[in-house]
Design brief:
- The protein has one domain: Tetracycline Repressor, domain 2.
- By secondary structure, it is mainly alpha-helical.
- The N terminus is likely disordered.
- The chain contains eleven helices and no strands.
- The termini are far apart.
- It comes from Sphingopyxis witflariensis.
- GO terms for molecular function: DNA-binding transcription factor activity; transcription cis-regulatory region binding.
- This is TetR family transcriptional regulator.
C-alpha cells in the first residue's frame, strides 16, 4: 500500500456501541441535533465536545458513551444527513420507476426539492454538507453515500436504457448525483438566484447528463 493510498483511508477510532434503548437513542439524537446547531453557529474549527456538553447540559463522560471524540460526532452528523437524504431518493425511485423513464425524467425536480427540504430541516444541515467536503477525514461518508444512490439508480436505469454500457451509465448517474448535490449546496449559499430557478435548471442538467446522445 502506497503512502498516498494510506492517506485516503478513513482513520480508525475506538468503537462506540449504537444505543438500542429508546431513552438512549433519544439522548444520542438530541446530542446530534445540538451539535448540528453549534456547527452552524461556530463552524468546524471551533466546535468542541465541551461546547456540545455545555449546550446539552450533560457531562463529557455522558457524551463519550455515544461518541469517541469531536470527529466521531461530525461523522455521525454526516451519516445521519446522508441516510435521510438517501431514503428520500429511494422512495422517489419506488414511486416513479414503475411508471417508466419519462416519469422519472419529468420528476427530477421533485426529488431535488424533497432533498433540499430535508437538508433545511436538519439542524445545521447546510453546514454538515459543507463539512463533508471540507474535511478529508469525513469525505468517505459523502463519497460512499453518493455511490450507494448511484448504484441504486443504475439498477433501474440499466433496464430502461439497455443499449448504454453499464459502466458508461454508472458514470453518467454518478455525475447526476454530484450535480444535484452541488446545486443544493449552491442554493444554500447564493441568494441571487431564486431557488425555483436552481431546481429547474439542475433538473435539466440531470436530464441532459443521463440522456446524452439520445434522440
Amino acid at each position: 500500500m502506497t503512502k498516498a493510498t494510506e492517506k485516503r483511508q478513513p482513520p480508525k477510532r475506538k468503537s462506540i456501541m449504537v444505543p438500542k434503548q429508546a431513552r438512549a437513542i433519544q439522548t444520542r439524537e438530541r446530542l446530534l441535533d445540538i451539535a448540528g446547531e453549534l456547527l452552524a453557529e461556530v463552524g468546524l474549527e471551533d466546535i468542541s465536545t465541551n461546547m456540545i456538553c455545555a449546550r446539552a447540559g450533560v457531562s463529557p463522560p455522558a457524551l463519550y458513551r455515544y461518541f469517541a471524540d469531536k470527529h466521531a460526532v461530525l461523522e455521525a452528523l454526516g451519516t445521519r444527513l446522508m441516510e435521510r437524504q438517501n431514503a428520500l431518493l429511494l422512495c422517489w425511485l419506488e414511486r416513479h420507476a414503475p411508471l417508466g423513464i419519462q416519469s422519472m425524467i419529468d420528476n427530477v425536480e421533485e426529488v431535488l426539492r424533497e432533498t433540499a427540504e430535508a437538508t433545511i430541516s436538519e439542524p445545521g444541515g447546510a453546514w454538515i454538507a459543507r463539512v463533508l467536503h471540507a474535511s478529508p477525514r469525513l469525505a468517505h461518508i459523502r463519497i460512499e453515500s453518493h455511490r450507494l444512490v448511484t448504484n441504486a439508480q443504475l439498477e433501474v436505469f440499466a433496464d430502461m436504457l439497455p443499449h448504454i454500457p453499464r459502466e458508461t451509465l454508472w458514470g453518467r448517474i454518478r455525475m447526476m448525483v454530484e450535480f444535484g448535490y452541488a446545486a443544493l449546496e449552491m442554493m444554500s449559499e447564493e441568494d441571487r438566484i431564486p431557488s425555483d430557478e436552481v431546481f429547474a435548471k439542475a433538473a435539466r442538467v440531470v436530464k441532459f447528463t443521463l440522456l446524452e446522445g439520445e434522440a
